[in-house]
Structure formats: structure tokens, C-alpha cells
Amino acid sequence: MPEVQVLLDGLGIPESPRWHDGKLWFANWIGQEIVSVDPDGTAEFAPTPVPKERLMGWSIEWLPDGRLLTTGDKIRRTETDGSVTVLSEQSANEIVVDDRGNIYLNGADFDFAGGEAPKPGYIKVLTPDGELREVASDIQFPNGMVITPDGGTLVISESFAGRLTAFDIQANGDLTNRRTFADDLGPDGICLDAEGAIWVSTGGSSVVRVADGGKVLERIDLPEHRAPFAIALGGPAGTTLYLATAEWHADQPITDNLNRLVTGPRGGQILTAEVEVPAVVA
């Protein structure tokens, strides 16, 4: 099993990690900031506006032309001059972009942080011409998404169903041929490697690398109560696995865990492990 090391700590809830322009970027929930980190652990805090009124449940991604997107209460795009454009009033959690500039976003319309009973969620697509439409429904708490390098498949975490679900992407951005990629997991943020396998959390304090069909290829165990909220591959060789983690007690209610993360010490960490199969080359 690869050795796990701490790259950065003292965070709120690190989420939505992305390897971009030679650095790891992530959303630091509670702290309400976007952070970039060099491979040596040197961190910078981006001046980009983030949804201050939403302490958690927002993500980051880049368009093919390099402009930054953020979700939350709205979909925002940071322009090259630093100004911010609201692309849609649609609230959203996770986000992924294909090479045509289609923005896939997901969410569920219930108060997760407040302990409200779950409702099925959705995936929507926001096209480059500004059209927003729903392309998948009945998603059991949608979370991390990835798109295969050929642009033909989207895989999403259905956290409350314990599975990864795949769709074919049509030329117009629609999603079809819904099917199970892997199940019996505890998926949140996920990442895809160059062999088509996905790194995903198990629902406890560990992550696994799974192939299409559900075969577990590798496993990394973390300290007890150290929950991996999201995962990314990057680093100079593409073989550094970045784990965005925070303290989480599975035997406690969701509301208690979230209250502790908001009001307690900032114990979020970015962990790293070196793996053999690198990230997908863009």
C-alpha cells in the first residue's frame, strides 16, 4: 500500500481538488477560499470570489479556454481581467466540463446540512450558448463526476446509493445508456486514471481504485475518522494521488459532523500518496 503523507493541514473541508497549471487547486469550504498548492506544499489563496453565503456544497472547474468556473448558489465564471460573470442562477454542487465547453452540474433540492430527508437529485447541462436543461434525474445524492478522455462517457458518484453510475454522452450533450460502473462503495469526489479506472472513497476511512464493473484493483487505508471527501491525480509525473480529507464520525448524525467541522478546529488535510498509473493526459 502506498505511503500516505500530509501535504497541507489546518483547512476547513477541502473539496473539489483539481490538478491545473502545475498546481493542485481546491475549494476550502468553511474558510471560503480557493487554494492552490505547489508539489512542495507551498499554498496560495486565490482572490477569486466564492459563494460566501454557502459554507459548503460548491466546486471549481476550468473551461477549455482556461477561465475558472465556480458553483454554489449560482454558476459563475471568472474572466481573464478578474471580473466575474454569472452564467446561470442555477444552484449546484459538483461540476465537470467537456472539451466542447458543455458544463455538467449536479445537485439535490433538500437541506443536507440541516438534516432534511433526502430527495433524488439531478444532472443538468449548461451549453456554451447558455441553454440549461436536465439530462439525468433520480440521482441518489449526486457528487463527483468525471468525463472520459474521448468525451464519450460521464461517470457520477451516487453517494446515498453507494455506487458509481455511467452514462453515454451524446453529441448534443444529452446523457443516455445509464448503467452501473461500480457499487458497494461510499463515493464522493472521484478521479479517473490513464487506464480508465477510478479512485473513489469506500464510505469509511479508505479509498480504492476500481475498474469498470466494480473490481477493486488497489486500496489505501487512512487513519480512523479521516474521511476522504474528494480525490485528484496530478503532480509532475501525474502519479501523485491527492486526498482531500476531514474528520468524520460515521456513528454520529450528519448534522453533528457538519456542526463540528464548522465550529471546531480546522482539521482538514490534503494527503498525498504516490501510485503507479498516472492521471489522464488532457
What does this entry show, briefly?
With 282 residues, the protein is mainly β.
Parts with pLDDT < 50 across at least 5 consecutive residues = none
Mean pLDDT: 94
Helix- and strand-based class? mainly beta
The largest sheet is:
4 strands, antiparallel
Count of runs of 4 or more consecutive helical residues: 1
The residue fraction in helices comes out at under 10%
| SSE order, one letter for each helix or strand | EEEEEEEEEEEEEEEEEEEEEEEHE
How are the secondary structure elements laid out?
Blueprint: E1 5-11, E2 13-20, E3 23-29, E4 33-37, E5 43-46, E6 60-62, E7 68-70, E8 75-78, E9 84-88, E10 95-97, E11 103-107, E12 121-126, E13 132-139, E14 142-147, E15 153-158, E16 163-169, E17 175-183, E18 191-192, E19 198-201, E20 206-210, E21 216-221, E22 226-234, E23 240-247, H1 254-263, E24 268-274
Antiparallel strand pairs: 1-24, 2-3, 3-4, 4-5, 6-7, 7-8, 8-9, 10-11, 11-12, 12-13, 14-15, 15-16, 16-17, 18-19, 19-20, 20-21, 22-23, 23-24
Question: Can you tell me about this structure?
Answer:
- By secondary structure, the chain is mostly beta strands.
- Helices cover 4% and strands 49% of the residues.
- It contains 1 helix and 24 strands.
- It has a 4-stranded antiparallel beta sheet with strand order 1-24-23-22, with no helix packed on it. The chain has a 4-stranded antiparallel beta sheet with strand order 2-3-4-5, with no helix packed on it. Strands 6-7-8-9 form a 4-stranded antiparallel beta sheet, with no helix packed on it.
- Strand 7 (68-70) and strand 8 (75-78) form a beta hairpin.
- The longest helix is centred in the C-terminal third of the chain and has 10 residues, at 254-263.
- The chain is globular, with a radius of gyration of 17 Å.
- The relative contact order is 0.16.
- The model has no long low-confidence stretch (mean pLDDT 94).
